[in-house]
């Protein structure tokens, strides 16, 4: 999933087997990061001394700074975990773990367009995922590859 607001954040392409977590960056961007990078950054932050200076440092340099955003090309198969019950109902899903395919909704670079499509036809903007939600890359795809799974998805898009 490529987003021009990600240009100000260090990033890399997804790889097969990557264990990812949804995180809100200090830029406001909601994206995917490596779970091990996030754990390491959080442990480092906890190890710092407490008090005023720690609070000031955490305000100035949030946990998300320095963590690479993982770019997920269209066609990449994902295992989306920890889907909250309210989202399961809204997106007509059965269970908190679902296979999905990354897609882009429009060619308009000025809008949020990164999405995932579930097998039931629901397409969800990445911004609707929940911070802390876990995602595993089942099979990464290049942007140039055709996406044979997408035609089966309907037009139901959850964006609110």
How many distinct domains? 1
As an assembly, this protein is single chain
Order of secondary-structure elements:
EEEHHEEHEEEEE
| Sheet with the most strands: spatial strand order | 3-2-9-5-6-7-8-10
- SS field, number of helical segments: 3
What does the main sheet amount to? 8 strands, mixed
Rg, Å, rounded: 16 Å
Low-confidence stretches: 143-157
Shape from CA axes? globular
- Class of secondary structure makeup: alpha+beta
Distance between the ends = 19 Å
- Strand content of the residues, in percent? 25-35%
Mean pLDDT score? 78
Q: Please give the share of residues in helix.
A: 10-25%
| Number of strand elements | 10
Provide keyphrases for this structure.
single chain, 160 residues, alpha+beta, 8-stranded mixed beta sheet, two-stranded parallel sheet, 3 helices, globular
Note down, in words, how this protein is organized.
The protein is of the alpha+beta class and 160 residues long. It has one domain (4-34, 68-158). It has helices at residues 35-47, 52-60, 85-90, and strands at 11-13, 19-24, 30-34, 69-71, 77-80, 98-104, 114-118, 123-125, 134-139, 157-158. An 8-stranded mixed β-sheet has the order 3-2-9-5-6-7-8-10. Strand 7 and strand 8 form a beta hairpin. The longest helix is centred in the first third of the chain and has 13 residues, at 35-47. The protein starts with 10 loop residues before the first strand and ends with a strand. The relative contact order is 0.23.
């Amino acid at each position: 999933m490529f987003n021009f607001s990600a240009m100000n954040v260090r990033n890399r392409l997804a790889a097969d087997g990557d264990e990812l977590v949804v995180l809100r960056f200090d830029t406001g961007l909601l994206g995917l990061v490596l779970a091990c990078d996030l754990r390491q950054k959080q442990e480092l932050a906890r190890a710092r001394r407490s008090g005023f200076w720690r609070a000031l440092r955490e305000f100035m340099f949030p946990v998300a700074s320095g963590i690479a955003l993982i770019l997920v090309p269209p066609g990449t198969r994902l295992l989306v975990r920890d889907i909250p019950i309210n989202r399961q109902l809204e997106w007509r899903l059965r269970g908190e773990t679902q296979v999905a395919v990354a897609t882009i909704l429009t060619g308009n670079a000025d809008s949020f367009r990164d999405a995932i499509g579930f097998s039931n036809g629901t397409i969800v903007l990445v911004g609707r995922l929940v911070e802390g939600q876990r995602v595993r890359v089942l099979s990464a795809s290049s942007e140039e590859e055709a996406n044979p799974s997408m035609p089966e998805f309907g037009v139901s898009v959850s964006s609110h």
